[in-house]
Design a protein that fits this description.
With 291 residues, the protein is of the alpha/beta class. Helix content is 40%, strand content 11%. α3 crosses α9 and α4 packs across α5.
Length: 291
């Protein structure tokens, strides 16, 4: 279908800012620009009963934010976390995992896994039921959620109810059809993804590690059920669909949701596109059913 008009309006507004392409920015510049636009794109977070910041020995996770393992933080993803908490009627615990290039692979993975282990053993301290635990994330956060879901299966003592993967990074492969077709013009570019990977895991020979590219994991049997959201005009479309297909082939219940006409990043843009709220609703329904 044609590009969603609200997505096109976002692209036009972004172009009007005159910022250099992401791959020509430093990580510090990318963080500043991303944070500066976060509230305008996400809108005011929905009212909550309460918000609490906690410091624990290892970061605690339910939701991993995106940002290519380099940019974004708890503030940039405050709006989606609030929306999901309301729709699912559950606690949403976000983790401020370490970012590259200061902390390269596997730092983010280790933080994510330590966080889930903390929730699984000490979640009662914050009113959580460790027996009803889901993980999720968008983009690079979806990558971390997929890796954590596999680690949870392998550990054997932590049962996840659901994994929510929103346009996840699942493979370090820039030659898929969607990478070529959507290389430029739709917000996230192929060059930007190369830039993210170069900061996160500059050693190309290590990018096939399943903890970096979960699509390359040998065995996906027994993983938690999954909701996978992908977008038509996204370089990551093919790898998201491929991961959903591999999960399904391994006997994992999967709901794959393709957002036609939509672009990468929309989960944070409730103030500029109605499709964001649809994704909130889709995830909320899945979480309620699983938890």
């Amino acid at each position: 279908m044609p590009l969603d008009p609200q997505a096109q309006a976002y692209l036009d507004q972004a172009a009007a800012l005159g910022l250099p392409p992401l791959n020509e920015q430093t990580p510090e510049e990318a963080r500043i620009h991303t944070a500066a636009r976060a509230r305008a794109l996400g809108g005011e977070p929905e009212p909550l009963a309460g918000v609490e910041n906690r410091t624990i020995p290892s970061p605690v996770l339910v939701w991993f934010h995106g940002g290519g393992w380099v940019a974004c933080n708890l503030d940039t993803h405050d709006a989606p976390c609030a929306a999901l908490a309301n729709r699912a009627g559950c606690l949403v615990v976000a983790v401020d995992y370490r970012l590259a290039p200061e902390h390269r692979f596997p730092a983010a993975v280790e933080d994510a896994w330590a966080a889930v282990r903390w929730v699984g053993t000490q979640g009662a301290e914050i009113g959580a039921d460790p027996g009803r635990l889901a993980v999720g994330g968008d983009s690079a956060g979806g990558n971390l959620a997929a890796v954590v879901a596999r680690r949870a299966r392998d550990a054997g003592d932590l049962q996840l109810a659901l994994q929510v993967l929103v346009y996840p990074v699942t493979d370090a492969n820039f030659e898929t059809a969607s990478y070529r077709r959507n290389a430029t013009g739709y917000g996230l570019t192929r060059d930007a993804m190369r830039w993210y990977w170069d900061h996160y895991l500059p050693d190309v020979d290590r990018r096939g590690d399943p903890d970096a590219s979960p699509l390359r994991a040998g065995d996906l049997h027994g993983l938690a059920p999954a909701v996978v959201i992908v977008c038509e005009y996204d370089p990551l479309l093919d790898e998201g669909e491929a991961y959903a297909a591999r999960l399904r082939a391994a006997g994992v219940p999967v709901r794959l949701i393709l957002e036609p006409g939509m672009i990468h990043g929309h989960i944070r843009w409730a103030a500029v596109t109605a499709r964001t709220r649809k994704s909130y609703d889709d995830i909320g329904v899945a979480l309620k059913a699983s938890l």
